[in-house]
TrEMBL record:
It comes from Tepidibacter formicigenes DSM 15518. It holds the Pfam family Peptidase_M78. InterPro entries: IrrE_HExxH, Rad_response_metalloprotease. It comes from the Bacteria. This is IrrE N-terminal-like domain-containing protein. Residues 25-136 form the IrrE N-terminal-like domain. Transmembrane segments: none annotated.
Length: 146
C-alpha cells in the first residue's frame, strides 16, 4: 500500500480540494446524515456497489468534517471491508485500520505548511481552533507527542 500522505496528496491534486465532502461526492460516494443517540459517530458501508458514508447529524460541524474525512479514508484505504464504524466515546478510535483512517483524515484536512501561517508563539490548540480541526489531528499529522 502506498504511504497515506502520498495517497492524500494525489487525491488533493486530482480533485483540487481538501474538502472531504466535495471529494466524496466526486468519487460517487453517497453521504447521509442521520441522528444517532448512541456512540455512533459515523460509518462507511459498501452495499451492492453503492458506497455510503453515514455521519451522525448530532455532531458539531467540526466533528462532522473530521468523521467524514476519516470515513473517506476507509473508503480509499479499506474498501474491501464491508463496514467501518466510529462508535466510541472518543473521536479518535484505536487499532491499525482506525489509525490509518485517522492519519488519512489528518493528511487531508491539514496542509503541510500550516505552521507557516501562524506566529511561533501559537500553541497547537490555538492553531487547531483557528483551522477548525482537533488538536489531536495536528499532533497525528506532524508526529507531535505532547
Amino acid at each position: 500500500m502506498k504511504r497515506i500522505d502520498i495517497r492524500v496528496k494525489n487525491l488533493v491534486k486530482k480533485y483540487g480540494t481538501r474538502d472531504p465532502e466535495q471529494i466524496a461526492k466526486e468519487m460517487g460516494l453517497i453521504i447521509k446524515y442521520k441522528s444517532y443517540n448512541d456512540y455512533t459517530k459515523g460509518f462507511y458501508i459498501n452495499v451492492k456497489r453503492n458506497k455510503f458514508i453515514v455521519i451522525n447529524s448530532n455532531l458539531d460541524e467540526c466533528s462532522k468534517r473530521i468523521v467524514l474525512a476519516h470515513e473517506l479514508g476507509h473508503a480509499m484505504l479499506h474498501s474491501s471491508k464491508e463496514v467501518h464504524f466510529i462508535r466510541e466515546n472518543t473521536l479518535f478510535p484505536r487499532g491499525k485500520i482506525e489509525n490509518e483512517a485517522n492519519k488519512f483524515a489528518a493528511e487531508l484536512l491539514i496542509d503541510d505548511d500550516i505552521f507557516n501561517n501562524y506566529p511561533d508563539y501559537f500553541t497547537i490548540e490555538q492553531i487547531a481552533a483557528a483551522e477548525n480541526v482537533h488538536s489531536e489531528l495536528l499532533k497525528l499529522k506532524f508526529n507531535i507527542n505532547i
